[in-house]
Amino acid sequence: MAKLTPKERMKIPRQGMPERDADERNKDFKEVNLGFQKELSKLEADRCLQCKERQCVAGCPVGIDIPLFLEHIAADDMEAAARLLLDANTLPGITGRVCPQEEQCEMVCVRGKGKGVPVAIGHLERYVADWARENFDLKQILDKPSGFKVAIVGSGPAGLTAAGELAKKGHDVTIFEALHEPGGVLVYGIPEFRLPNKVIESEVNRLREMGIKIITNVVIGRTFTVSELMEQEGFDAVFIANGAGLPIFLNIPGENLKGVFSANEYLTRVNLMRAYDFPNYDTPVFVGERVVVLGGGNVAMDSVRTAKRLGAKEAILYYRRTRKEMPARDEEIHHAEQEDIIFKFLVSPVGIIGDEEGWVCGIECLQMELGEPDDSGRRRPIPIKGSEFVTKCDLVIEAIGTRANPLLTATTPDLKVNQWGYIEADETGATSIKGVYAGGDIIRGSATVILAMGDGKQSAAAIDRYLRDEKKTPSSAATTGAVASS
Predict the structure, then answer these.
(1) What is the CATH number of domain 250-262+269-401?
(2) Fold matches, 6-135 and 149-245+404-484
(3) pLDDT tens digits for 444-475?
(4) CATH of 6-135, one of 3.40.50.150, 3.40.50.2300, 1.10.1060.10, 3.90.180.10
(5) Which of 205, 125, 216, 225 minimizes the C-alpha distance to 164?
(6) Is the pLDDT of residue 477 over 70?
(7) Whole-angstrom distance between the N-terminal and C-terminal Cα of the chain?
């Protein structure tokens, strides 16, 4: 079949993602997007102009050869597309669903310049990843065993990616996860209507098939320290990817009332501990009739959409700027609007109101207006004097960000951290301790899944170089029964 000319490609409109009806999906936790089918995917892949400069590749934190990937899809060579994708990306079924492609590869797509619309790279990534999960068993070719042991702290996107890359190089990799299931923020923070658990389980199982060991219920900083991993457990290098899971609060009156949640606790109860399926799972969660969520990012969007699905009659999002400044993905905002989520912009809370029994019964807020841009580049919200108002509600969820949990760093005094408690690392992830690397939210603050994966991939390459070029000889320290028997 003859290839399309650039002029013919330009005539093809972007193919929309099929999705479930909003009035149906806002009552359950089944996935919203239905995914591309074969004809849609080929048509969308044919929109790629196969540019010589390939800006989309530079825009991808894990370096997928996107033009060649799209060429394979257009030619219906699914095995080649899957092989290319899985070789570059450890977690394609996940990134195809939650990666902000509109800010990365799609943002620099030539098709999106001016009034154009970029190629739907993320939707095609998901399509191929889902096809591969059902139809293709990629046997990763692993280098011969190196004799080196590497410990990964955390099984989120950075940790899983680093583990996969290091296993390919022949290293003996063990992941230590503090929670009872692997996946980190992927399982406790992202609802199933965006990222089904079966997708995460599939990606994790593929890593296990590569020989990677995953040990859960181990808190590094308490069960073991970083130095104990290296000096007593015989690990030659450590990659720290324990995220930034300590919630930030507004520090306004009333935050100690019953019915006030951090988004972390709320989403962990619902997602990881399956509270949405209570009593089949023994984890209760408070279901409010009128729920107010504070924030404007993806976590806030996940929280307010979750509240609606749990049965809230009104799920309201308060954000102190306008829709234009919201950091959440456009797709998530669009889906929330379809699902009858109520948006209140230019609103900032000043106090939470309780009844005589200590339960939330309302929230007091101020109207805001936008002033000059702040350090983030967004216009700074300024309170309007005398604009106070009260909204009745029975549940308040604060989704305004997270910071680093100090447990690990407090037990590793030689590990340099910055003023916010995040680990200091260079461009390769190397920290102030030789052989210890870090990546993801623990060095960046709250960031995206794909940026964390990029860190994991980059640090894995640096760890491999360190082990072979500097350390050269595997550690001979005897392991204790704790890790060896797990």
Answers:
(1) 3.50.50.60
(2) no
(3) 988 889 999 999 999 999 999 999 999 889 98
(4) 1.10.1060.10
(5) 205
(6) no
(7) 54
